[in-house]
């Protein structure tokens, strides 16, 4: 990992023609706070500075004053002679010829009306950072020498000129190698330092790979050794796009207090930290935890299902907020109008296209005797297409008269990969991944979890790749959606127990459900099933289940639709 020979020793040359050496001592002190030992040489004349640059000695950082006092009296009384030092520093680098940065150049200037383009000229000559002398004052907007020291430290680390701190270690596992080569080891180090800044100083971090979810972020587990030798284990999420991480962090702060404290994983409040185009957030790593998807595939979970689901939803769990309904309104020409319930249950446009692709991929199997051979195949396709296209429910158009959209605060990505079960004598659930948290149709959290259990926990691989259990899965979805207990299944006791628990707790989990809204629940389940039909990571039989069970749900929804006065 980090090069053991590479030290944290920094050599600085300051070239200033004004004999004002206020920088050296304080800058060295600030760099010491980043655990760098600094040796600084000060060159008062231009020649001395240029001579030093032409020698073979190592110079990690050049700090150069751009405007030197003019040799002749009279205006202008300053000349941009420092540009020669910038050029010399870059020439030196080019002479090495490997294209690597060996010296950082910081150019400083006084405000000058005589040289309005000096910033640009300095950058063109190769300065990495151009500041005004006044920026170095402790109360400047820039942040003074403290900020400059941080910049120097971070750039030296990123350019591999000093060994990174915290020191990273890892094994040769492909996931971690990919993540580190994407993000860059120096960036990982700097991001960890920044995330830890308000908590503790981190000496070293041992990294392991964690399989990410659908977000595409890199997820790593980091065992940290702090300066006082105590250990912490964090989960780090790295992404190129800060927005989603930021939302996740803000949501984690917003939900704190809404549920029992232990239900949501604890996030580090600071972040996202940003370095070199990457962003990161951190949370406490739940050691010894399994995802609910994994857990429900184990027979030993069966006896604890009821207890874990109770903690997840009831008594300060997620269902606490499922009654807090609001009705979003949409502005139209004649004032505000309620939104039809069906609009909260339709797939977003990009998913509609994916469903169409899934139908094209799977349709043939519906007629295939070696698969499921359904006589109603054409009806399945047209029913799903009608719903996806216009929200039509098995041939019937619905609008606000059939129901008005009510939304409640939900996790909004409640699948078994986003629920951890902490293993103990009494296992305990913990919710992660709050990026989507917010108000949505009241049935969606529960619909998503039910469908996720069927897709991932009923006959996991290899059985999920065969067709002989297909009708059992289809029946389990149908029965659970009607709040009837799913049939006994000795191969999947924990998953069945979970589905039965949901069916038995309909009043707690779906407190807004009434007879006239029953159809909305079935449509919510259908919408979730269609999403899973598009997932190539699922087996083909499970994907086809997504389509056919969605068709079943749309029919159940249609027969539950309330009668409304016919429109004209
Ligand atoms: N705090 C945590 N402790 C232990 N494992 C975690 C933690 N957070 C996430 N994980 C693991 O990392 C996986 C991906 O995390 P998640 O936050 O869901 O990322 P994504 O946004 O990519 O879905 C989870 O399924 C889980 O296995
Ligand atoms: Mg996730």
UniProtKB/TrEMBL annotation:
Q: Which SUPFAM superfamilies match?
A: Protein kinase-like (PK-like)
Name the record gives this protein: Phosphotransferase family enzyme
Protein's organism: Paractinoplanes brasiliensis
- Lineage start: Bacteria, Bacillati, Actinomycetota, Actinomycetes, Micromonosporales
